[in-house]
């Protein structure tokens, strides 16, 4: 029987088999390629395969020689030019790499990876602007990439698992794909995984520094996590893009505002408006900055410029109304009512505008003395806003109870010494609209005290510690806190001091953190910053709560949109502060707003004595202090103390039964706490 021999594979089949070996067994791919070249000398596909195999084996110089020959014979083959550019880059031959890659992108501008590789070579050669433009061209090419488009569509449809799988598979083939990394960062952000989102976005920017959209995304993530110095660095870079955009300057201005650099932010907004004067959002942003700087008349002009260009712009109307010294007239009321009517069919899509308009109309009718109409609008605005936020009053009360049960005198004594010894911070705590801005303005008029703003750092530290409980590392908050060693507590205190340093613009030894919600964290403050001072600013519960209820806050105060919710919150606050008083007598100094109004000098002296500071007359002339103030009381603290607002709630008393019921015994015992919580 004659054995039949299998015919040798065709050249095409042999080449395909060798290609399959390239990724995992390049030496065998080279052997096959060399065999084909013996049969067909100078066969271009075999030469190209051999060159790629040599590169993967680390024999770049030999690969370069073969690719050079191929490129000379086949100068318009993109694959050859791309491989030549990579090999030359591996060898540090920037001139050759750049020339090959420039030829590649001229032939095939849709090859994104070619643009990105070219950008790296140009950047190494110091050609920064050309490199930036090459990155941008790579992003433009990627915007037509079918695989990326499919992943983006899946993400936008809520199919994040499918999108993530597509992108991870892509990165396995090409680990330095910046657009895929940015999309993965957005997927992580949508899931609430900020750590991963930041990592992916930062990696995308590292790989393609000219990827403006990725840098913009990274800045927004850094702002959300309060990493302001890093956000500023990236924003300063973004505005230097060779393809300028008003959005780049806008995000820089937003970072500057967060850092308290209001004057520079205002200059940016004015520059943008000089170029494009019909931008209502920019007019509104300018108004916010001018208000903070105390330039009230100019702020009013800016807000009116915004609403004249967009009459339904609810936030701009509210910003006007929220300048407590401004009265909205009949023409304004008519314009706002017309704006509301025009939004009747779009309430679901324009909720922000609608509730802002209701709050603004509430203030307008309040100024005219029509308290029934004012209350009706405040009520509608609050009810709509309440549907947009999450606040569980029962869960919050339970959390406050747990905090009181954890931070007892015995517990702190058992923890021993520890924490950061810095005496710098003065925490002014309480509820919004309690007079805390007045206390801040008085103290920041002292030569030893710097006013900053409502700083989120302590709340972020507390939330990070709570996450260790939520993730199951500890059975409860008390166990987690008990686990903190003296070194842990010192590290956390040092972290607070370092993270807030960026907000300090002077060399004054003390600074104010006016985040009102820090009343929840006095125990933690004593653990990690034992020498810090805490001032509790307190106002009559009906004055404070009603004022907070009719005030729309930009963020954070989710308990203020229901009279019962805000009453319970005030009651929880009084109870926990009473617990702090019992456990740490004298540690928290209380400023009662009504007493400060009635006897300002003596109350200021008491406050300064508690802080160990000498009396300075400037503290009584706090209204002359020109520092920037960002809170709702920014205009009121620029005038001497007045009594007009002490009982502003009284005309609304017929509608305040839910608030009184929620306050319970706290109302009757004010300014003291009830004997039992």
Structure in words:
Keywords: TPR repeat, Transferase. It holds the Pfam family TPR_8. GO terms for molecular function: protein-tyrosine sulfotransferase activity. This is Sulfotransferase. By secondary structure, the chain is mainly alpha-helical. 63% of the residues lie in helices and 4% in strands. Helix 9 (146-156) runs parallel beside helix 11 (178-190), helix 23 packs parallel to helix 31 and helix 30 (541-549) packs across helix 31.
Total DSSP E strands? 5
Tell me the CATH architecture of the domain at 422-453 and 503-669.
3-Layer(aba) Sandwich
**How large is the share of residues in beta strands?**
under 5%
The first-level CATH class of the domain at 422-453 and 503-669 is given as Alpha Beta
User: CATH homologous superfamily name of the domain at 422-453 and 503-669?
Assistant: P-loop containing nucleotide triphosphate hydrolases
Q: What is the global morphology?
A: elongated
Q: What percent of residues adopt helix (DSSP H or I)?
A: 55-70%
The CATH topology of the domain at 422-453 and 503-669 corresponds to Rossmann fold
Which secondary-structure class do the elements indicate? mainly alpha
Whole-angstrom Rg: 32 Å
Q: Based on the structure, what is the oligomeric state of the protein chains?
A: single chain
Number of helices: 35
Low-confidence stretches: 630-635
Distance between the termini: 104 Å
Strand order of the largest sheet: 2-3-1-4-5
Characterize the biggest β-sheet: 5 strands, parallel
Mean pLDDT figure: 91
